Amino acid sequence: MGAKHIIALAAALSAFIMSSASAQTPRPGKLETYKDWTIGCDNRDRCEAVSLLPEGGDWPDAPVMMGITREAGSAADPEIWVSRDAKGREELSFFVDGRKIAAASSVDGETSLQGPQAAALAFAMARGTTLEVRAATKPIARPSLAGSAAALRYMDARQGRAGTMAALVATGPLARSVSRAAPATPSIRRALIAKGAEPPALWREELAALGKFTGCADEMKDAAPPELHRLSKTGVLVLVPCGAGAYNFSSVPVIATGIAGRRAFRFASFDYQPGWSEDAAHPMLVNVDWAPLTSTLQSYAKGRGLGDCGGSESYVWDGKAFRLAEASAMGECRGAWHWITTWSARVTE
Q: Is 218 found in the same domain as 163?
């Protein structure tokens, strides 16, 4: 086979891979919980384990949350982050079973460890009994290590590191280069939202038609009017209010076409149904936000007012449908306000 044929074949293979990545049906990762740790991985095999407050125990007034993140691929090392409600700069030290393993500077309650320190701390946490975080010499938290080893073993298996020297728990003699490469990143080409006049308000007859079409007539009576956002010269996104609670406000996304007063309605299309749509006959968004500059529609559902559990999806309008660009979730309502990414895609213009 000549050089030109090889180059043509490589180009065709690359185009096929990119096309497959772009057409991939979103399948966000599932979360797993092991005692006081929960873990999830996204479609790129990026995994993150997050500490939880002990179930049924006394929760501290100023909790400290920890997480261990690792990208896929043989070159990736773990990163450990710490988050708490604090101001200013301080030095944090990490002790496992009474032995100092690592230290890092914290600014306004946020810090992270990379490289050998992060690897050593993750390794020690998976094999230790107690973890203590100190600011200077003062203990500020004792995050539970129960379940951390199981969560990191899950991470090793999911990323294809089990049996390698790069594993955190399931270590073995194999070289770290054996670790599985990251899957291709899905790609979304977003449609640019043209600037223009605001869409005409809905007529009374159109409001009645929308209420009947969506089944939200009762909820619309005491709610603010539906939001209208222009998508194109002929299409308008209508966010129809359809119920409200203490901290979650539901909306049904509808596409309107035609002239004011006689617009036709259809439910917006999604390549992955929003989190509150499983039992509904149409898509349902929660605490919705539309950003025309990035063509992005955001849904953010809290499991409770504290915001330490729930699910979030971010969609990009591609001219025909809303496509999932990012998803995150936290299934346990146990003090973890940092949600785990379960899906991510590359957005292009």
A: no
Q: In whole angstroms, give the CA distance from residue 103 to residue 246.
A: 41
Domain boundary among 184, 208, 224: 184
Contact (CB, 8 A) for 44 and 184: no
- Count how many domains the chain has: 2
Structure tokens at 206: 């159109």
Give kind and range of the element (H or E) at residue 325.
strand 322-330
Q: Are residues 178 and 195 in the same domain?
A: no
| pTM assigned to the model | 0.88
Task: Kindly state whether residue 137 falls inside one of the protein's structural domains.
Answer: yes
H helices within 215-303, ranges in order? 217-221
Q: Within a domain: residue 286?
A: yes
Alpha-carbon distance values, 215 to 117, 236, 238 (Å): 56, 20, 15
Residue pair 317/193 in contact by the 8 Å Cβ criterion: yes
Question: What is the pLDDT tens value at each position of the chain, 349 positions in all?
Answer: 444 443 343 333 343 344 444 456 899 999 999 999 999 999 999 999 999 998 876 778 788 999 999 999 999 999 999 999 999 999 999 999 999 999 999 999 999 999 999 999 999 999 999 999 999 889 999 999 999 999 999 999 999 999 999 999 999 999 999 999 999 999 999 999 988 889 999 999 999 999 999 999 999 999 999 999 999 989 999 999 999 988 999 999 999 999 999 999 999 999 999 877 766 778 999 999 999 999 999 999 999 988 899 999 999 999 999 999 999 999 999 999 999 999 999 999 9
222 and 123 assigned to the same domain:
no
Domain range enclosing 79: 31-184
Q: Are 215 and 338 members of one domain?
A: yes
Whether 205 maps to a domain, the answer reads: yes
Q: Burial code of 75-114, b = ≥16 C-beta within 10 A, e = fewer?
A: ebebbbbbbbebeeebebbbbbeeeebbebebeebebebe
